[in-house]
């Protein structure tokens, strides 16, 4: 039976005289009518058209609406290349602890050592997973991470007196790659597609010269193939002084199996809201930390978190702008609520658990592929 309470508007469900709550008589309150207590000039001329409903009416309405939703708690939930993960409920509870969510954004570092310690550990874990030690948690989402990383690359090249103007990306690239490159002031060059679904190496070689700043590639790529020549691709870029950017959109397939830094990547962004279970309904919010090689760390957007020792010999965490930072690209420290959920996810699973996540993800993807091979054109 269709739940009409989940279809009708609250105003349509309204019945004159219904009340959601009543207030007890309190002798301490004045008995005069409201009109005698509030002057005419401060009162509305007519009543607001608000629905008159019981508490039960309202509960049934919103629970009914929730049951009509397609969500990660009720369905397999794909969104383009972003397959939403289940968000563990205990991580939601931990991320809502008062000591984490009630922190004032202008609090001094001395007052938020617990939170800064957690974020420092998140930096370290993301650097280890990527094989790229320089990490900034600052960017707000994936495309923002791309933009931040490209600004970082631009600052690095300018510090060397190099005027590199081009960003190259394959035909299978996410649409955010050329958008981020354009916003960062670069010329965009798209490679011709290949019949195999991999990067077109011949076309890449034809575009490589000392004007190329960065090659942006997703690995595994958008059609689910691991770029088997990624080592050769990285060497080709490095031979002309360029950098390799790994779009972390599909990191879920390689956690603990291989690392972007190990196959030649110089910089990357994570989608914490995809790979590490930040809630991702309605398109956000997200978090897009970036990880880079040591020689790029000085140019990262800040603030970043550094671990030091105080006068008593205890660990002390402080906020720091890298010496040649591209600056602050958003307010405060990043999307902390999403970063915390990612932190709890990584700590819960550990290295072995993250590897198993990728093993199961690839197995599931291949199962789906086997079921769709007769209706899809598969490279």
Q: Which class best fits the helix and strand makeup?
A: alpha/beta
The CATH C-level class name of the largest domain:
Alpha Beta
Radius of gyration, Cα only, in angstroms? 26 Å
What name does the CATH topology of the largest domain carry? Aspartate Aminotransferase, domain 2
In DSSP terms (H or I, runs of 4 or more residues), the helix count works out at 12
Superfamily (CATH H level) name of the largest domain: Type I PLP-dependent aspartate aminotransferase-like (Major domain)
What's the architecture of the largest domain, going by CATH?
Answer: 3-Layer(aba) Sandwich
Strand content: 5-15%
Uncertain segments: none
Helical residue percent?
25-40%
* Main β-sheet, spatial strand arrangement: 3-9-8-7-6-4-5
Order of helices and strands: HHHEEHHHEHEHEHEHEEHEEEH
Number of strands: 11
Overall structural domain count: 2
Roughly how many Å apart are the termini?
45 Å
Main sheet makeup: 7 strands, mixed
Question: What does the overall shape look like?
Answer: globular
Mean pLDDT: 91
Secondary structure elements and pairings:
Blueprint: H1 10-13, H2 34-37, H3 55-68, E1 78-79, E2 82-83, H4 89-95, H5 98-101, H6 113-130, E3 134-136, H7 142-159, E4 166-169, H8 176-183, E5 187-190, H9 201-207, E6 212-218, H10 230-239, E7 243-248, E8 267-270, H11 272-275, E9 290-292, E10 304-309, E11 315-320, H12 336-372
Parallel strand pairs: 4-5, 4-6, 6-7, 7-8
Antiparallel strand pairs: 1-2, 3-9, 8-9, 10-11
């Amino acid at each position: 039976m269709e739940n009409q309470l989940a279809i009708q508007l609250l105003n349509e469900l309204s019945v004159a005289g219904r009340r959601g709550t009543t207030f007890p008589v309190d002798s301490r309150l004045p008995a005069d009518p409201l009109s005698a207590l509030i002057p005419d000039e401060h009162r509305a001329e007519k009543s607001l058209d608000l629905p008159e409903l019981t508490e039960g009416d309202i509960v049934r309405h919103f629970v009914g609406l929730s049951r009509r939703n397609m969500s990660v708690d009720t369905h397999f939930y794909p969104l383009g290349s972003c397959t939403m993960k289940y968000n563990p409920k205990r991580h939601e509870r931990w991320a809502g602890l008062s000591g984490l969510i009630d922190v004032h954004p202008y609090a001094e570092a001395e007052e938020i050592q617990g939170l800064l310690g957690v974020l420092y550990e998140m930096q370290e874990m993301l650097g280890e997973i990527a094989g790229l030690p320089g990490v900034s948690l600052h960017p707000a989402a994936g495309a923002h991470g791309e933009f931040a990383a490209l600004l970082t690359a631009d600052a690095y090249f300018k510090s060397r007196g190099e005027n590199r103007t081009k960003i190259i990306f394959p035909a299978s690239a996410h649409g955010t790659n050329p958008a981020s490159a354009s916003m960062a002031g670069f010329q965009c060059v798209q490679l011709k597609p290949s019949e195999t679904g991999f990067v077109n190496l011949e076309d890449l070689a034809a575009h490589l010269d000392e004007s190329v700043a960065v090659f942006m590639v997703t690995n595994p790529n958008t059609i689910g193939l691991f770029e088997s020549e990624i080592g050769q691709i990285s060497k080709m870029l490095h031979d002309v002084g360029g950098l390799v950017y790994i779009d972390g959109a599909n990191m879920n397939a390689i956690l603990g199996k291989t690392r972007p830094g190990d196959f030649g990547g110089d910089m990357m962004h994570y989608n914490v809201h995809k790979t590490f279970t930040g809630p991702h309904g309605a398109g956000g919010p997200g978090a897009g930390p970036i990880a880079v090689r040591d020689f790029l760390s000085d140019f990262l957007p800040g603030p970043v978190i550094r671990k030091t020792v105080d006068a008593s010999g205890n660990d002390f965490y402080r906020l720091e702008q890298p010496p040649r930072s591209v600056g602050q690209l958003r307010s405060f420290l990043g999307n902390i609520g999403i970063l915390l959920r990612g932190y709890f996810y990584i700590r819960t699973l550990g290295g072995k658990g993250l590897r198993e996540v990728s093993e199961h993800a690839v197995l599931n993807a291949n199962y789906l592929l086997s079921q769709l091979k007769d209706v899809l054109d598969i490279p």
